[in-house]
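Table 4 source record.
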Amino acid sequence: MKLIKSTAIIGALTLFSRVLGLVRDTLTASFLGAGPINDALVTAYKIPNTFRRIFAEGAFNSAFVPLYARRIEEEGEAAADKFASEAFAGLLVIVAAIVIVFELTMPWTLNLFGAGLGREALNAGAEFPYNLSTYDLAVVGAQITMPYLLLISLTAMFSGILNTRHRFVAAAFAPVLLNVILIGIFALMMKYQWSKQVLSLYLALGMTVSGLFQLSLVVWACRKAGVKIKLMRPRMTPGTKRLLTLGVPGMLAAGITHINIMVSHNISTLQEGAPSWLNYADRLYQLPLGIIGIAMGVALLPALSRRLRSGDEQGAKMSLNRAMEIAAFLTLPAAAALVVMPEFLVGGLFERGAFAASDTQATGMALRMFAFGLPAFVLIKVLTPAFFARENTKTPMLYAGMSAIINLVLGYILFKTLGFWGLAVATSFAGWVNVFFLTRTLLRNGNFAPDTRLLSRLPRIALASVLMGAAVWWLAQYFTPMLDHGLLKNYLLLGLVSGVGFVLYALAALGLGAYGLKDIRYAIGK
């Protein structure tokens, strides 16, 4: 089954990237902790990443890939590449203009992302002779990172071309380069002993430099695959009109969601340390989300688009059923583990150097609340391609808007009543609302029908996950007192608990009939 193979390739490389990301976050926690300087760095990263997701995951995931796949199927590769050249020209001009505007207005527009950041000068030390406040440091960092938006948006377009042609390796490997470069900066930090302020600015620069390497990699991979993209003057051709028609709702859908995340981050800056706690928690739950949800979504969209273009409606429904089954099989145990042992994970990974025990408790609470929404976040990645493949980007946009409003209103209320982790509760709840409406619409339109296999296996997967969760909860309680500042020892303990949990889940799922040996033979064989 190509979907399993594609997901495995993307998932394996994404896992490698996220493991390196975990190493990067461990180093960040050790050197910067969860204080004002890391709050500034998180905010500086947030701006290009927010708009990257609007353009990359919005327009090009929702519109470009289905249209490019249709051109290949109906008109051939040359026509598809001509369409890609037109899209490249438009994307280059639009995103470059956005970058320039933000660069010029950053001292004011940063208020949209970090209005609550401190305005009092930080104690920089002799080697950093500038009396910058947390807000000022975020402004400079954001100006350094903004070119990354242009580079990574173009990278997303070339990655979409490669994915449509079933060449997943280069596009999935590209994010690895970001983590390699940032880890390299930490290695230099250990040698030169920079101040925290200097380190944060070098990390911002590393993000932009990584964008150059990522773009170079996917452009090289496209040329090797025979893709011929030409630099041309932007024109309003029938192809670009269609791309705008489908892409604008996709951008609005992604935009509503991520602008909502931006507002949530802005609210969190009202409490010092909260942006860092939420960011560390976000990085941990993004590990399974990236490996499973994003990998599944990237692999599923081209597969669904091609099946529908060839008139294979039943095949498209079958692919969606299997995607949901695979997603549930991999996501539910991950969510259960994050719910029952977040402090054990956070303490083992981050609690050393500048990252205190109080930071572990705060980050662990946020991670637990995000974990309740993890299955929803993955399902959104699985369900939205079923709309995008049918060139329907408006419906996901409406539902994203609805969930964003819920997230914003509920998040503000819970922030005021519960504290910073109320923002995580609101995000999870809004995710489940989105899943409900996406699923209801697909069922109502006849574009999705749960088959007997899916309905039979979902409760068995859930029960196996609960049994595994109970076991790893006990193991985490037992091993938590053994955690210390030794990174290798902590990694071994985390690996032991996670490994035992994995084995117990595999055995429980096999015993309950959530999967069979023939499924393994089929997946390996295909």
